[in-house]
């Protein structure tokens, strides 16, 4: 091949590869395209946030469809549109299950292109959060049976991940505590006690939220356990509910879930590659909750910020293996390009551009809260005003308390 022809091939190849780099960098940046959505959402301008999501969905290639559904479901949930949120999150759950079956062509394609070019399938914890939010949605509609189905799905999925897939996860305290509340509301005392006890095992700092555990340990005849709990929580009053009393559980979905950012990792081959890591977007303070003259600090039962890091760190090993395979494939392509054109420069440039394309996937379900904080009250039957203060902002909600029932009240707070 003549020098002029070789230079022509080199030039065309450079343009093709550079174009691939540009498309790779622009096409899949869901995080950048949803910046306006997040601003509207965090300002509680939910209709505007939904409009922004519509625009994002129209512009997208379909690879972010799951994220669009997840964000839409969360916005609807935060807006109190429980039925709409149920419908959208159910669709997200179905799509996530379909995406579990990864096509060979898509998996192979990510070895040579940006990982952001694959359809987003969701982190393990994000899939679990679908059912947690669904349980809360159903609870707001007084559909305890449906809410319990979602809680049991969370627990069973985690059992499979831990026992069968050998992942270093643990059960979610928020799901277990919600299970206890729902079972108690249905007067299934033994099942309620079991879930409350598991929640305490997962989150030893429940404090006043341990009240039903003490009360139900005594009620179900677990007297040895009752004595241990009484010594552990000597200041937690736990008298049986009076005939005209009910309870309210306030669920504060607080703060902003962590976001992914690129982090350097050095392989055994001494190559430096980038992988996604979660970074906190601030830790929320504990909300203050009042009902009438009775006030208390909410208790953090589950930190999604912590759960997210555990789940992603477990996946890092598999990601590193894929990066190594990608580096080998790219080296082969680069060597082939250099040999074909007899140009060492083209080989080096090919390898450089292909590696530039391989950027970490920084997409995640960023509309989730950072924490689930709970506060619990026993109240006389009737209508009450619940006040929640977080980050200097106060929100009031009306709640109807029924004798012998446990009412769940959900609020979203951003701080």
In short:
Helix content is 54%, strand content 18%.
Task: Please give a structural write-up.
54% of the residues lie in helices and 18% in strands. The chain has 15 helices and ten strands. The strands form three sheets. A four-stranded mixed sheet has the order 6-7-1-10. Residues 13-28, 328-338 and 346-354 have low confidence and may be disordered.
Return residue spans where pLDDT drops below 50 for at least 5 consecutive residues. Answer: 13-28, 328-338, 346-354
Topology, number of strands: 10
- Based on CA atoms alone, the radius of gyration comes out at 26 Å
Strand order of the largest sheet: 6-7-1-10
User: So what's the oligomer here?
Assistant: single chain
Mean pLDDT: 85
Helix content: 40-55%
Strand portion = 15-25%
Report on the biggest sheet. Answer: 4 strands, mixed
Task: Provide tags for this entry.
415 residues, alpha+beta, 4-stranded mixed beta sheet, 15 helices, 18% strand, globular
SSE map:
Elements: H1 3-27, H2 30-33, H3 35-42, H4 46-59, H5 65-78, H6 82-99, H7 104-109, H8 124-140, H9 144-163, H10 173-185, H11 189-202, H12 211-219, H13 223-232, E1 245-254, E2 259-266, E3 272-279, E4 288-291, E5 294-297, E6 299-303, H14 304-341, H15 344-357, E7 371-380, E8 382-390, E9 393-401, E10 406-413
Parallel strand pairs: 1-10
Antiparallel strand pairs: 1-7, 2-3, 4-5, 4-8, 6-7, 8-9
Helix pairs in contact: 1-15, 3-4, 4-5, 5-6, 6-8, 8-9, 8-10, 9-10, 10-11, 11-12, 12-13, 14-15
